[in-house]
Amino acid sequence: MTTRRWTRAALCALAVGALTPLLWQAAEADDVAPNLTGLPTYPKLSSAIMMGDPHACSFYNARSTDSMKAVVAWYRAHLPGQTPVMTNSPINGPRADFGVHAGMQVIVFVPAAPKNAMTSIVLGRGCPKGVLPQGL
Question: What is the domain range of residue 110?
Fold first, then answer.
């Protein structure tokens, strides 16, 4: 390959790499993007989106109209040996944190406001424990 062709190929690869995060965040039809974290996906989702870098820290942010109790029970059944740490804050609302294993985390919560908010589910991969996407 000539130097000119090699340079052109390298520039194309850089351009595709720069666009990857934008493509990564795009949701599929019905507002439910595929879960690429490797963690189990709750089956009754209203919306979901992948966020972050697919090769580093990434999150699957999802919402369900099911109760938090139902979602936590489903994850207890699908994450054998994992018991969630339950917390409740007047600011952040109730939260169940399954610290699955190195670099993997499942968090289920219902925001304190607005009332009747949907159950939120965050599946994290490759991120430090306790790190949530901005705005959650």
Answer: 26-125
